[in-house]
Amino acid sequence: TGQKQTHGFQTEVKQLLQLMIHSLYSNKEIFLRELVSNAADASDKLRFKALQNADLFEGDANLRVRISADAENNTVTISDNGIGMTHDEIVAHLGTIAKSGTADFFSKLSGDQAKDSQLIGQFGVGFYSAFIVADKVTVRSRAAGAASNEAVEWSSEGEGEFTVQAIEKSGRGTDIILHLKEDEKEYADEWRLRSIVTKYSDHISVAVEMLSPEVEAVAEEKDDEGNVVRPAIEAKPAQWEAINKATALWTREKADISDEEYNEFYKHVSHDFADPLLWEHNKVEGKTEYTSLLYIPSKAPFDMYNREKQHGLKLYVQRVFIMDDAEQFMPTYLRFVKGLLDSNDLPLNVSREILQDNKVTQAIRKGCTKRVLKMLEKLGNKDAEKYQSFWDEFGQVLKEGPAEDMANKEQIAKLLRFSSTETDSAVQNVSLPQYVERMKDGQDKIYYVVADSFEAAKNSPHLEVFRKKGIEVLLLADRIDEWLVSHLTEFDGKQLQSVTRGGLDLGEMDDAETKEAQEKLEQEFDDVISRVKAALEGKVKDVKVSHRLTDSPACIVTDEHDMSSQMAKLMASVGQ
Ligand code: ADP
Ligand code: MG
């Protein structure tokens, strides 16, 4: 064995460890789920790499995860023969958090553990969850293809540091040895471990094995007449046997998969912590054949707006894992969707480059996009409350849709939710179909106002005439809204019209009598208008008598074809 080196954890790892122990005290057993999940990932990765180089199997392509407990020494060992880690990989992966935006996330924590521990769910805990039950963790690993004396041992008490040293290890893959805390000895029990695996990891597609109990030989027993009263029992040594189904969950029949299995599988593929909001599992047959299992998370991840954030689906080809985060199968405005695809049409040696410009990719992407939009529409129709919780988490992202996806514009528009003068509430829960249904006789447009804040939108003087006439106006105040309405100009054949724009024509809703009165008023104010024009010379394009105000004396409007004042501000803020 080589010399021991000591390394410090990245600051955020230390914070994560602290928080985790605080927040997961009531759900400690999930450490096993996380470690088995990692072991299964390691098997997937080896199988993928071996497609190019079968030597990596070293003659043993029978991938499995083994779990054992040692009650005497208070240890639990999770052992896999997957891809393994090199010295550099172990230092990088088990000393830092390799998620972009991590530092940012931690800098926003309040320091109040109770509050912050709510946030940990968004983050996922992974390997470090071992320290929930262990006061020392030892990881012994040999990368597939490396020599037996090129293995590495990592060890830490989860405080501020870890050590690494070169070791000998004949078997390929990774052993994780948990030295249980005094109060967590209960986990050094095989039956306990077995029940946890069944609860959380039954869906894992690689075999998860535990030792069956040893059976001692018992001789046959006969009574005086020579009848057998007890048959002989053959001795059976303890054997490794799979305790899970070990078939890929998505290949099973929907009817045979329970909600719990779908939930746990979600946690495995998404590295998320909470149950998903919704999922859809489909086998598509025909010209392109694939299986998709698509999940909508219940909470937005902390880094949803991070541009470098990896997103996308897990890709399998004929049940062989190919890659994580294949972003080609989902448009950007659906980047919150998690799950997997298993294609029968893509080649096993498919790369990101090949996916980029590929007919099969396009067909699957089209299918999956429609699938997600449908599933959201169904949810919206069926369960308003659940849909609202989806909208509150992901609505902002969905609003990017009409600009990005022309083909599905109308479909996406139906999924949008807004605040409106109908309720004057900041809760965005009015859909465009609802608005259209409430339109007044003779109203042919969908009216909206965009402002910097909800309060500003709600109190806009431009709304006065609409309120007076009882015409509903959508109140838009999200950063993305101006962008949205510049791309969503129509819905259900009705134009979307800003109330701050140019000649406001309320069409048939203005009766002849009002029109006449308005003209008279304009003539009376001719003189005032000229004087105001002179005073504002060079500052405004025009001054007109307005009929849209009832209480305020004046307001600023944008000319029909000019940039709106919000857009002008947006452009100025990016230096245009
Ligand atoms: P995640 O699984 O979300 O990537 P984890 O904290 O669970 O995060 O694991 C961190 C990383 O450590 C993994 O991405 C992987 O690279 C590495 N790792 C963990 N466990 C194993 C293992 N059993 N075999 C190989 N690599 C592993
Ligand atoms: Mg993990």
UniProtKB/TrEMBL annotation:
Gene Ontology CC terms: cytoplasm
Region (A): 1-352
Entry's localization field: Cytoplasm
Pfam families, sorted: HATPase_c_3, HSP90
SUPFAM superfamilies membership: ATPase domain of HSP90 chaperone/DNA topoisomerase II/histidine kinase, HSP90 C-terminal domain, Ribosomal protein S5 domain 2-like
InterPro entries: HATPase_C_sf, HATPase_dom, Heat_shock_protein_90_CS, HSP90_C, Hsp90_fam, Hsp90_N, Ribosomal_Su5_D2-typ_SF
Keyword annotations of the record: ATP-binding, Chaperone, Cytoplasm, Nucleotide-binding, Stress response
Main location class: cytoplasm
Gene Ontology terms for molecular function: ATP binding; ATP hydrolysis activity; ATP-dependent protein folding chaperone; unfolded protein binding
Histidine kinase/HSP90-like ATPase domain ranges (all copies): 27-184
Residues that, per the record, bind ATP: 34, 38, 80, 85, 99-101, 122-127, 174, 352
Protein family membership: Belongs to the heat shock protein 90 family.
NCBIfam families: PRK05218.1
Described purpose of this protein according to its UniProt entry: Molecular chaperone. Has ATPase activity.
Subunit and partners: Homodimer.
Official protein name in the record: Chaperone protein HtpG
Species this protein is from: Thalassotalea agarivorans (Thalassomonas agarivorans)
Lineage: Bacteria, Pseudomonadati, Pseudomonadota, Gammaproteobacteria, Alteromonadales
Protein's gene: htpG
